[in-house]
Write a structure and sequence with these properties.
The protein is an all-alpha fold and 419 residues long. Helix content is 65%, strand content 1%. It has two domains: 61 residues, no CATH class; 305 residues, no CATH class. A two-stranded antiparallel sheet has the order 1-2.
């Protein structure tokens, strides 16, 4: 068996020198070999790893090194490509919904402006023609003005009935809300893909949210249009049922998943304040806006109908000209207040705000009802999310909960600082 022996003499000094004289300058190069100590290395045992370790031990090198032969930590489970593909498909559909609702919102906002201008112009023209007819001496000119003003009033009445039925300003506000909510959903799906390992549950939830928004804010006018004058004012609902959302992915068994009794009590108090103050206040405002809108929607066509009746009797009855001119002017004022001030849009805004607070309440309740804290959303993250939704810092949110638990019904502070 062939062996390699390294002696102390050889290992201590092995040098080669080269000298080149140029005048008085000398260049000297020396190579020193490491001290391997006494011993032998068997050629049969010179594997790659064994040789490296043997040389390290003999040269006194003791630091731990990482080699390709050591086991690497297991990599996280890769996401299912089909799940990713489905989520991107849903994102494309959501982006398309955003553009559709945005375009239709602009269209219906134009409807409101154009119809308002047109109806007011027709009504004022009919009023002027009624006054001119009253000053005429009779004959064909009187009959022409009377007929024209009557027809214009009737046309304005029909247009007002249609406009008051569909409430273009309210339709535009619905599409604005839908655009904002679809954009929010688009970002949620993008975040799910970016930071987590999405599963088929995420695909199902995203699909349900899209369908819920489609139902809450329909695009067509015929058949599925939302009731513009509901008998009962309720918060808008645009979300899918909250059931164990992200429970498996966000759940953590360490430190009770960020939840404790203090945080649970804080969330209960916040939900009570929102229900007692914010949601109730916006529902009350919504009811007032709805009553005003109903009164204006009835008054406008009523005034134009009376004006048409009066203009038809101009020259025969002394009160006819007063009725024809004054009722036409009042109709213009009413129409301007209703659609110029966009009372329908205001009602929808109040209804949507009440729905926002209902959503936050449901989110809090769904987490508190889950007894296993590992299946809830992370407590610290959830508290921060609620605080941001209400426009408060964490300290302000805790102070609100503390003051509400002490003062109870006597607390007049609203939960939200945004609306």
């Amino acid at each position: 068996m062939a062996t390699i022996r390294a002696s102390n003499v050889v290992s201590s000094t092995f040098s080669s020198s080269s000298t080149h004289n140029r005048g008085e300058k000398t260049i000297r190069a020396t190579i020193n070999m490491p001290n391997l100590g006494n011993g032998s290395l068997s050629l049969s045992k010179l594997t790659t790893r064994g040789l490296v370790e043997e040389l390290q031990l003999r040269s006194g090198y003791r630091n731990k090194t990482t080699t390709l032969f050591e086991k690497l930590p297991p990599s996280p489970k890769a996401s299912d490509p089909m799940v990713i593909t489905k989520l991107y498909t849903i994102m494309e559909a959501v982006a398309n919904r955003v553009e559709m609702h945005k375009n239709i919102e602009e269209q219906r906002n134009n409807w409101n402006s154009l119809l308002l201008t047109s109806i007011n112009s027709i009504t004022l023209t009919a009023s002027v023609m009624t006054g001119i007819a009253a000053m005429g001496s009779g004959g064909a000119p009187l009959g022409a003005f009377k007929l024209s003003s009557t027809l214009l009033y009737l046309a304005a009445t029909g247009m007002l009935l249609v406009m008051n039925k569909i409430q273009p300003s309210q339709l535009a506000e619905e599409q604005r809300n839908a655009t904002r909510l679809f954009k929010q959903l688009h970002e949620e799906i993008h975040t799910t893909i970016s930071i987590g390992n999405p599963t088929s549950i995420d695909v199902k939830e995203a699909t349900e949210k899209v369908l819920a928004l489609d139902k809450a804010y329909p695009l067509p006018l015929l058949g599925v249009m939302l009731e513009k004058f509901p008998k009962i004012v309720e918060p808008a609902v645009w979300w899918a049922p909250l059931q164990e959302r992200h429970a498996q992915r966000l759940g953590e068994k360490i430190n009770k998943n960020g939840w404790d009794e203090k945080l649970e009590e804080e969330m209960r108090e916040i939900a009570k304040v929102m229900n007692r103050k914010d949601e109730d206040d916006y529902l009350s405002l919504g009811k007032k806006a709805l009553k005003l809108n109903k009164a204006l929607a009835i008054s406008g066509p009523l005034f134009t109908s009376l004006a048409a009746f009066g203009s038809a009797f101009v020259g025969h009855r002394p009160w006819a000209v007063i009725l024809g001119v004054v009722a036409g002017a009042l109709s213009t004022v009413v129409n301007t207040i209703e659609h110029g001030a966009q009372i329908g849009m205001v009602f929808e805004m109040y209804r949507s705000n009440a729905g926002f607070f209902r959503l936050v309440e449901n989110s809090i309740e769904s987490n508190l009802k889950e007894r296993e804290v590992e299946r809830r959303e992370n407590g610290e993250l959830f508290e921060m999310k609620v605080a941001l939704q209400l426009g408060r810092s964490l300290s302000e949110l805790r102070d609100l909960a503390a003051s509400s638990s002490i003062k109870g019904e006597a607390n007049h502070e609203f939960a939200s600082k945004l609306f």
